[in-house]
Amino acid sequence: MTGGVTTRRAFAAGVCALAALGSALPGPAAETVQERWEGLPLLDVVVRPGESRRATLAVSESFVGAVLDTPVLVVRGMHPGPTLCLTAGIHGDELNGVEIVRRTLQRLNAQELRGTVIGVPIVNLHGFRRSSRYLPDRRDLNRYFPGRSRGSSASRIAYSFFESVIRSCDNLVDLHTGSFHRTNLPHLRANLEIPETLELARGFGSTIVVHSFGTQGTLRRAATDAGIPAITYEAGEPMRFVQSDVERGLEGIRDLMGAIGMLKPRRRAREPQVFNRSHWVRSDDGGILISQVELGERVEIGALLGTVTDPLSNEKSELRAPHLGTVIGMALNQVVMPGFAAFHLGIRVGEDPPLPQPDEDWAIEAVEDTAMENDERPEE
């Protein structure tokens, strides 16, 4: 009981700190970086101040022994500052983040930049080429970080990427969309109990932040455990570029870079709406799912979220909200199976359901992942 009270107090303190960070965000001071600003050695290149370079990471081989190179884009500013890493495409069917990273790096002016930006538009090239969420062995790469040098193929790829790229980061933004024909309201996921992560979330200027520790094996959790402040930007659905979600992501990253002193701030950061947890509402029946709510909609206890109709018997069941919340993710209208996670509700402080729920931010993916991890340790 004492541990639970301590955690709640720590979270409450974090939420208060989040609201008070507007005037406390770091400016362009460079006291934490080396006095002499030199070239950055990364993978197969050395990026000097004022340069933009493309490096390559040979992450794995195909079954015929051909090496697959992952492009790593680097812009090193003329002035000292932190290193911000942007990653996307860990799931090969999630496209919005790919465009956000590409445009961000393309628009950067190294002459005006303080610090370094490392961008990896497509981490999972295997999946991207096949329009698949997974690696060729049907493993989810975002369940294996920080990886192992002698583990499975997924674990080795995760290890190579983490050690060669992520270890060089001072801050990390990992970009994702919904999975399995679902869509997400643009929002951040972050461990708000960590002060440095609070700063990132506040600096991004997102209207919604969901507090979560992150599941073991995800890049965000592995980076956080390694002492690298990390947040996840979730927006949109797989296999589609949604211009509004891309633009919002670009604006958030630009605001974040201003907040941490890499670029000149353009405006005062907006106050985000904080959810202290989230919960998936699942269908108990199989059939055709028709939603009755929209992303961002506020729902009361008992509100109708959608219906599932058996296409043969015409029997209909209803999915209703078990508690107060905001729809931050939802399944697109489709045929579903019993147990399918259909509506993701964000829950604010004071709106918790009567019974404790697990941290389900990533549980949906774990539940529907393939069971091909039996040769791995449980924590991977």
Keywords:
Aminopeptidase; OB fold (Dihydrolipoamide Acetyltransferase, E2P); alpha+beta; 380 residues; four-stranded antiparallel β-sheet; disordered C terminus
Question: What is the CATH first-level class name of the largest domain?
Answer: Alpha Beta
Our measurement of the CA-to-CA distance between the termini, rounded to an integer number of angstroms, reads: 29 Å
Full CATH superfamily name of the largest domain: Zn peptidases
The proportion of strand residues reads 25-35%
Number of helices: 8
Indicate the radius of gyration in whole angstroms. Answer: 21 Å
Number of domains: 2
H-E order: HEEEEEHEHHEEHEHEHEEEEEEEEEH
Secondary structure elements and pairings:
Elements: H1 2-19, E1 40-42, E2 45-47, E3 52-61, E4 67-76, E5 79-87, H2 96-107, E6 114-120, H3 125-129, H4 153-164, E7 171-176, E8 182-190, H5 195-204, E9 208-211, H6 219-225, E10 230-236, H7 243-259, E11 273-275, E12 277-282, E13 287-291, E14 298-299, E15 304-309, E16 316-320, E17 325-331, E18 334-336, E19 341-347, H8 363-368
Parallel strand pairs: 5-6, 5-7, 7-10, 8-9, 9-11
Antiparallel strand pairs: 1-2, 3-4, 4-6, 8-10, 8-17, 12-19, 13-15, 13-18, 14-17, 15-16, 17-19
Helix pairs in contact: 1-5, 2-7, 5-7
